[in-house]
Amino acid sequence: MATRNLSQEAHLWYTISSPDYIAKAKIKLQEAADLMRADVAQHAFIADYAPVPYWGGVIEDLLDRFDGALEILKQGEFDPMQRWASRMKTIPRGLQEGNMNWMSEMGQFMDLLNETFGICDEFLTSVAMSERFSDPNYKDGSADWRYELPEDVGYEGNGIARYIEPSVFPVLPHQIPEYAPDTSVSCKTGDVVPWTGVWVPNTGMGTAALAFARQNVQIMQPTYEIASVDDDGYASFNLVDCIWHPVKPTGRMIEHPVLAQLKHGAATAKGRCESGERCPREGLWFTPAAPDKRHFKLGEVMPSVGGDYGVTIWQWAGE
After folding, report:
1. pTM of the shown model
2. pLDDT value at residue 231
């Protein structure tokens, strides 16, 4: 497993579970609704095509309900927004099962819905483990989580940095808050969580993910140490009871660790980069799959240009 950074991972957990982040879902959904409404206006006959009033109605209802769920989330109650995000996730598939080819902007419309879906999926996954450990029977000991919760259904290991950060921050922020464990507060596996936020095991991160846990809603989880990963990427875990500490900002800002690492090696970085990777040196890059050179910032996710080329290969063209 790659070298891990507590501040980097904690910042990602706090970002995708935040009201500000899920608020981006409404913006994207509103753009999609406006696009659909404009297309329907140009094709009056399509207003009675069953998927249009049904899914259009679902979208409008979600837009109407969002602000109420957001205000409740700001008070620390996640359930209404979890229901909102879960309902949103059904829309792209539902529309794809109907015939939407009548839309002149179908590609852009589906892109907006999929972006909304992605934000909702990240939010839901960030709180998935806190949901799993919230059964009231775990609190009174009448049920044993050890037999019922053998897997990490959130972001296992360092997956939040490896797989989620590129979508959350296609261009890396120059600085992020510094975080550190608050060792004055502790919660051991099986006890009711006393504080809402990100937690770290007292043994260190190791191969286990940080935990997003919620005050009084759940018992504290064990660490899910990754024991092995099979050829399909499926992990098996060792569940370890331990003591956890909350991870809180120190009040300082630090350089993003990935940017710091890239800067260190920029002068000697290779002149080749695949789509999906972070740009290893700022400047102009070109690819045989596109006619023009493009400027990328250090740490920016290199894009795919699509087509029949498979993975897009970018080559360094100079400052």
Report:
1. 0.89
2. 86
